[in-house]
Amino acid sequence: VTAGSIDGLTFLTENYAPFNYQKDGKVQGISIDLLLDMFKQADTTKGLKDIKVLPWARGYKLAQVKKNTVLFSTTRTETREKMFKWVGPIIPTKISVIARKDRKLSIGSDKDFDKFKIGAVRDDIGELLLLKRGVNPKRIYRTNSSTNTAKMLAAGRIDMWAYEQSVAYWNLKEMGENPDDYEVVSVLEESQLYFAIQKDTDDGVVGEL
Questions:
Q1: Which of 5, 26, 79, 113 is 20–30 Å from 138 (CA)?
Q2: What is the pLDDT of residues 53-73, one digit of tens each?
Q3: pTM value?
Q4: Which residues have C-beta within 8 Å of that of residue 83, sequence separation ≥ 6?
């Protein structure tokens, strides 16, 4: 396998622990380990230094317009299918809506979402799935990072949070919250995480990945 093609790719990720995140200046996580193995197999000069951590909305925009850009971990959905080329799956994923147990909140049908303030990361799959279910956009409180949304939920500034389940619990735990104080009130979608590649990128390079 020649490395020339993979060498020309730009790799973008976000803080989405335990899949991919930056801690103490080091990029790490399940997806990162997998990508490093892919680099090894491809015999490329690429390494940890070539993986950029960006806020999700910014990375998501770049991966749609800038050729040779790889964004991960990205939930593969019907809506996004034609927007990217895909390599994976990396791991199964569950997008859920989480709330504090002591609030005793429940969702019987999609209409019930409109009774609550729901936190979401801008352009994240959680936000997209809420909109797809017809949730009033005014009920969605958008932030640029999961850390900010986790803080809002813990402080009671939002009632619920739509996000990847493992990542949401990870964020709450990192903040010193007890994950047992939270529960899943609705599962929006079960899917899989992939490497999403800008759609004008050469098929040969995608195949090599």
A1: 79
A2: 999 999 999 999 999 999 999
A3: 0.87
A4: 64, 196, 199
